[in-house]
Amino acid sequence: MTWSLVMEHLFIVLASSLLSICIGLPLGLLAYAVPKARAVILRVVDLLQTVPALALLGIIMVFIGAGKATVITGITLYSLLPIVRNTCLGLQEVPAGIKEAARGMGMSTLYRLLRVEFPLAFPTVFTGIRIAVVNAIGTAVFAAFVGGGGLGGIINRGIRVQDMGLILGATGALMVIAILLDTLLSWVEKQMYTAHRRTLKLGVFTAAILLLFVALLPYGMSRGDDDALILYEGDYSETQIMHHMIKMLVEDQSDLEVVIKDQMSQVNNFKSLIGDDHTCDMMISYDGTLLTTFLHLDPSDVEEGSSIYELANQVAGERHGLRLLKKLGFDNTYAIAVPETVAEEYGLETISDLVPVADQLVFGAEHEFFPQEGTVKFVPFVEFYDLHFKDVVSVDMSLKYAAAEKGSFDVTEVYATDGLNRKAGLKILEDDRHFFPEYNGAYLVREDTLEKFADVIDLEAVLDQLAGKISNDDMMEMTYQVDVMGRTVDEVAEEFLRGLGLLSGADAADTAA
After folding, report:
1. Which of 96, 233, 403, 489 has the highest local Cβ count within 10 Å?
2. pLDDT at residue 347 is higher than 80
3. How far is CA 7 from each of CA 2, 174, 211, 231, rounded to the nearest angstrom?
4. Is 460 in contact with 327 (CB distance < 8 Å)?
5. What pLDDT is attached to residue 202?
6. Partner residues linked to 414 by β-bridges
7. Cβ–Cβ < 8 Å for 264, 232
8. What is the pLDDT of residues 21-42, one digit of tens each?
9. Which segments within 137-273 are labelled E, that is strand?
10. Rounded to the nearest 5°, which phi and psi values hold at 448?
């Protein structure tokens, strides 16, 4: 966890809170002043609150792309409910006698609302603001899923590799931010209760918040990267290692700068790679993932004499102007694994060995392995091998290895090159009937990116130096070093590249920092 991630998180919270206040207060006033609009406004903000945060961010990302703008927009919408509802409620609770007295003194509706009713409703209104700010701190952890940065990526990684230090460190930082902001807001609220120089105090507080926002702008604004090769940080160590290798190789062998932006999932990374408004230039991918997940085709679409790699490359070029570079050598396909103790107890070496004992075993995997669509999923798998498990358990991807280690299930689906297989003591069973297709790792790059930087670097030639050089064992060892042994991605990536003799004498880890 770095200081910059804390500042990024604070920027997201502050920006979304300011926006939600600017939008929520007028909506609350409108809901109070116009009874016919009240039901509609309150119903809309209620409905926004019921949408799962991650789903809301995904919907917004479709329209405005990945990054902090998506996160800030989502949290702003999520924070409207307490502000709007408390503003309307606080104004409704102002005693009727005071309202009548103000009317009797000849005050206009607007003057009475802003100078009489709103100050009396202020405690309730401010409570809504405090709730919105504290909620925003927790909701902002989802920023990591859509390239928004912040502390969410640290928590997600800590859960996946079962590193309590990472989890507690990031959670502790969130708690400190929440306590500090809530304490500050509590102090401001008390100051507003005293009539002496109330307007001056509010002005000073507003100015201080705006100054803080300006100070945090460097952590929230994207720098000008028109002349740099843009990547996103992956959400797993394998992706991160391969992206940092790009940075090290390119910057070592040319003057081109490589910028690795905030963490993002593979699916969202692909969405950010395609289209005229793309926000990155390339990514690590897999021919099987490209074909099935991104292009929505199926291995059965591959004609005889062709391959998944060739079909995926062809269709990606035709639809999106993308190209798969040469295969890197590792095949991160699906695999079926069991704890070593289970393998010994039942004498399991191949997937077919599960057939006679499956009714005694529980199968567990991440949610993504169970969708109805696709031929490389759970239902087609068990039908193909004629497996009938005792029970089936679906868990979150980040919790799968912890569940396997604790014996929550006996059989699971894993990725072949994941170093956590080794940590969890899992034995990969041979796919003796060849159900799972290959998922060959390869860099996926935009054709116009190769052309854009052609005068600076032959990007394809530089990256193809890695073609066929990274075996499954190599990748499993590298991810093990990062996820289990706690080494940094830069250390592991540089060590491997130097072992191949692909880096000059400069310290590549410094260039990737």
Report:
1. 489
2. yes
3. 9, 11, 14, 21
4. no
5. 63
6. 335
7. yes
8. 999 999 999 999 898 899 999 9
9. 228-234, 257-264
10. -70, -20
- 285 has which bridge partners? 442
Residues 6+ apart with CB under 8 A from 72: 12, 15, 16, 19, 148
Q: DSSP string of 207-241?
A: HHHHHHHHHHHHHHSPP--TTEEEEEEESSHHHHH
Which DSSP letter does residue 303 get? P
pLDDT at 290 > cutoff 80: yes
CA–CA separation, 369 and 414 (whole Å): 10
Quote the pTM value: 0.75
C-alpha 149/C-alpha 352 separation (Å) is 44
Tokens for 453? 């930087």
Of the candidates 429, 346, 426, the residue with the CA atom closest to the CA atom of residue 381: 429
pLDDT tens digits for 30-76?
A: 999 898 899 999 999 999 988 888 888 888 887 887 778 889 999 99
- Where does 279-377 have alpha helices with state H? 287-289, 308-320, 340-346
Interval 413-442 mean pLDDT:
92
- Using CA atoms, how far residue 382 sits from 218, 375, 385, 389, 429, in Å, is 51, 11, 5, 9, 15
Strand partners, 282: 445
Spatial contact of 230 and 261, defined as CB atoms under 8 Å apart: yes
Q: Distance between CA atoms of 507 and 503, rounded to whole angstroms?
A: 9
pLDDT for 9 beyond 60: yes
Choose among 60, 67, 69, 62: nearest CA to 16.
69
Q: Are 338 and 348 in contact (CB under 8 A)?
A: yes
DSSP 419: T
> Is the CB of residue 297 less than 8 Å from the CB of residue 311?
yes
Instruction: Give how far the C-alpha of residue 140 lies from the chain's centroid of Cα atoms, to the nearest Å.
Output: 10
For residues 234 and 240, the answer to whether their CB atoms sit within 8 Å is yes
